[in-house]
Every structure is written in C-alpha cells, then in structure tokens.
C-alpha cells in the first residue's frame, strides 16, 4: 500500500491507534514503530546526513508525542501530522546551523515535474529545470518536493505546510508557471 494513498479502512485503523495513544501515552510506541522509518527518510532527504536525520527524527517524535492530546483527525494519514512536525524541525535545524538545504532528486520525479511544466522530457530540459529549481525560495521548493518528488496528494501537502488543500494547489501551479517561464528564458538565452 502506498503510504500517501490510504484506503478508508487504513485510515480508520490508524485513527484507532492514534486514539489509543491519546488515551494511554505508552501506546505511542505503535505509531513510532509504524512511522519512524518513513519520517527518517523524509528528514534524511532534506539533510543528507544520517546522524542529523536521526536527531531531527527523534525530536520530531518527541514533539509529536507531546502534541498528541491536541491532535485531530483531518481525513489524511497521521503521517502528515508527523511530517509537518519533522519539517518544522528540519527548518529550525537549517536556521540554527546556517547550512544549505539538501534536495534529493530521482530522475523519474524530475521527469514528471518537467511534464507537468508542459515541457518535453529531454536532457536539455532536465538541465534547465535543475537550474530553475535553484531560483525557488525554500517554501516553493518544499511544495515541489512534497508534490512531485514525494508524490503526496494536495490535501497532505497542505496539511504538512499549514495550507488548505486548494491553496496548496494554487501555489503549486503558480510555482510551475514560474519554473516554465525560467526554463523558456534559459532556452531562449
């Protein structure tokens, strides 16, 4: 089962686990075991360092456990709540350390981004889109990462970034238009 596209039964089972952990914090371990690896990978893709990713992931789970009593189900996987906390931790890490963010790309994901921007998936356009990505601010890059590189649905992207689903869509398509304009400008230069 794709972690990003769960069935209603999967969401119901997950919600039962969350409610059990809300009633008894000792039951949070089930959620920790279920999500540690995917949250670690999420963080690692942004930091590029195993030790840093492990530290950030641990902090994210601690904050999630402390915030669990306030958690409300919003129709998306519980992992979106965890990813939002993890992303905040990653952003704090980069603000404190003044290090450059890392972006992990897979060739297939890059191709889908190029297609979505309405361009041919050629080697030349791959180079253009990589150059264009460098012109995006951190928030825009996070939207692109979540939607195209991690293939998350807009509802989850919105929850992770603190946006409505519709706002996440609008912002994503505006960013795509910006990328397209940069790619065309680079092609014509």
What's the short version?
With 189 residues, this protein is mostly helical. The chain contains nine helices and no strands. 74% of the residues lie in helices and 0% in strands.
CATH superfamily placement of the largest domain: RNA polymerase sigma factor, region 2, helix turn helix motif
CATH class bucket of the largest domain: Mainly Alpha
Number of strands: 0
Q: For the residues shown, what is the average pLDDT?
A: 84
Strand content: under 5%
User: What is the CATH fold-level name of the largest domain?
Assistant: Rna Polymerase Sigma Factor, Chain: A
Low-confidence stretches: none
CATH architecture of the largest domain: Orthogonal Bundle
Q: What share of residues is helical?
A: over 70%
Shape: elongated
- In whole angstroms, how far apart are the ends? 45 Å
SSE map:
Elements: H1 8-23, H2 28-47, H3 50-67, H4 78-97, H5 107-116, H6 123-133, H7 138-149, H8 154-161, H9 165-188
Give a structural overview:
The protein is mostly helical. The chain folds into two domains: 8-97, Rna Polymerase Sigma Factor, Chain: A (Orthogonal Bundle), CATH 1.10.1740.10; 107-188, Up-down Bundle (Butyryl-CoA Dehydrogenase, subunit A, domain 3), CATH 1.20.140. Helix content is 74%, strand content 0%. Helix 2 (28-47) packs across helix 4 and helix 6 (123-133) packs across helix 9 (165-188).
């Amino acid at each position: 089962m794709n972690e990003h596209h769960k069935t209603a039964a999967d969401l119901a089972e997950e919600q039962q686990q969350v409610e059990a952990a809300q009633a008894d914090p000792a039951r949070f371990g089930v959620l920790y075991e279920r999500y540690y690896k995917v949250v670690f990978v999420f963080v690692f893709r942004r930091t590029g360092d195993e030790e840093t990713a492990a530290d950030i992931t641990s902090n994210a789970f601690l904050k999630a456990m402390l915030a669990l009593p306030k958690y409300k189900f919003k129709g998306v996987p519980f992992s979106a709540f965890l990813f939002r906390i993890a992303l905040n931790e990653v952003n704090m890490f980069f603000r404190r350390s003044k290090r450059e963010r890392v972006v992990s790309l897979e060739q297939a994901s890059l191709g889908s981004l190029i297609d979505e921007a309405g361009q041919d998936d050629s080697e030349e356009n791959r180079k253009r889109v990589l150059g264009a990505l460098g012109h995006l601010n951190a928030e825009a890059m996070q939207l692109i990462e979540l939607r195209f590189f991690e293939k998350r649905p807009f509802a989850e992207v919105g929850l992770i970034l603190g946006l409505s689903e519709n706002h996440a869509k609008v912002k994503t398509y505006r960013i795509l238009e910006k990328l397209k304009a940069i790619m065309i400008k680079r092609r014509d230069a």
